[in-house]
TrEMBL record:
This protein's UniProt keywords: Transcription, Transcription regulation
PANTHER family, A to Z: ARAC-FAMILY TRANSCRIPTIONAL REGULATOR (PTHR43130), HTH-TYPE TRANSCRIPTIONAL REGULATOR RV1931C (PTHR43130:SF3)
InterPro entries associated with the record: Class_I_gatase-like, DJ-1/PfpI, Homeodomain-like_sf, HTH_AraC, INH-QAR
Superkingdom, taxonomy of origin: Bacteria
Signal sequence residues: none
Pfam families hit by this protein: DJ-1_PfpI, HTH_18
Native organism: Streptomyces hydrogenans
Record flagged with keyword Transcription: yes
Segments forming domain HTH araC/xylS-type: 211-309
Protein name: Transcriptional regulator
Family annotation (SMART domains): HTH_ARAC
């Protein structure tokens, strides 16, 4: 198996937590990924904490990368223009290389023109600044990450874990990504988006939330599960339930249900020999055709194509 090289470009003011995410996630699969960290000049990098970090490489390793990752840096260093040396460093990246940003790293990609005309995200707290500086980018501050093929952007802090796990899932399937998540002791997939974390001027009304109902829904995905049934389980009116669900999860109940059904179907395609129609019934889609349509809309392939790609990607032992 060819080892995939991930090169992390650390900029001055980097957040230490996010800087370490790629090594922690991809490093759990050392037979599949190699992670190298570099700076624009090969020298030490100041962090936003009271210490600096010494990296192992200079910008020349960017030319060898299969994936380039930009971790975030301190808000005080945000600028509409590229930081010194970054343009020259990014010019070393080969065309077609996958490029990923975490949080404010998206500002670097936007300043370099790599996000023009593309959908992208960044931390919700700096979304207004981002929009004003880079109007050519289709910013969505409500999601945890955006996958636009060869360019991926993610929101703040822990969403760096989300996007890295997503890349493992995209490269090697859900079973391998789930193994990495267990090793890192994190959920393999987080529901919803950034909307659930945004500070609202008026706090949500007191009372029980929708968490118990979401868990109940996951245990009953094989059922149709109408909005009325969900609201009834939560003992809320339809209007209150839909509003509360959106506040807590960042998407509508219907969209969330489809996402959970597709995720469960992916798992069954990888780990069982069940027919597509049987899987559709187990995850709550009315027909195999419905499953095919939703899976294609979510990941762009048919159930059989997905199974052929990932059926052999069993989770490593250990």
């Amino acid at each position: 198996m060819t080892v995939h090289r991930v090169v992390v470009l650390a900029l001055d003011g980097v957040y230490p937590f996010e800087l370490g995410i790629p090594s922690r996630v991809f490093g759990a699969l050392q037979d599949r990924y190699e992670v190298l960290t570099c700076s624009v000049d090969g020298g030490p990098v100041a962090t936003n904490a009271d210490f600096a970090v010494t990296v192992g490489h200079g910008p020349e390793v960017l030319a060898t990368a299969d994936t380039v990752l930009l971790p975030p840096f301190d808000l005080s260093r945000l600028s509409r223009a590229l930081p010194p040396g970054v343009g020259e460093a990014l010019a070393r990246v080969r065309p077609g290389t996958r490029i990923v940003s975490i949080c404010t790293g998206a500002f670097v990609l936007a300043a370099a023109g790599l996000l023009d005309g593309r959908p992208a995200t960044t931390h919700w707290a700096v979304a207004d600044v981002f929009r004003s500086w880079y109007p050519a980018v289709a910013l969505d501050p409500d999601v945890l990450f955006v996958d636009d093929g060869t360019v991926l952007t993610s929101a703040g802090a822990a969403s760096g874990v989300d996007v890295c796990l997503h890349l493992v899932r995209r490269d090697h399937g859900a079973a391998v990504a789930n193994h990495v998540a267990r090793v890192c002791v994190v959920p393999p997939w987080r529901d919803g988006g950034q909307a659930q974390y945004i500070e609202h001027p008026v706090p949500p009304a007191a009372g029980s939330g929708t968490s118990a109902t979401r868990q109940w829904a996951l245990e009953n995905l094989h059922e149709p599960l109408t909005l009325t049934e969900l609201a009834g389980h939560a003992r809320m009116s339809l209007r209150t339930f839909a509003r509360r669900f959106g506040e807590e999860v960042g998407m509508s109940p219907g969209r969330w249900l489809i996402q959970q059904r597709v995720t469960r179907a992916q798992h069954l395609l990888e780990t069982t020999d069940l027919a597509v129609d049987d899987i559709a019934g187990q995850v709550g889609f009315a027909t195999g055709t419905s499953l095919r349509e939703h899976l294609h809309a979510a990941i762009g392939v048919s159930p059989m194509a997905y199974r052929r790609t990932f059926r052999g990607a069993a989770a490593p032992t250990g």
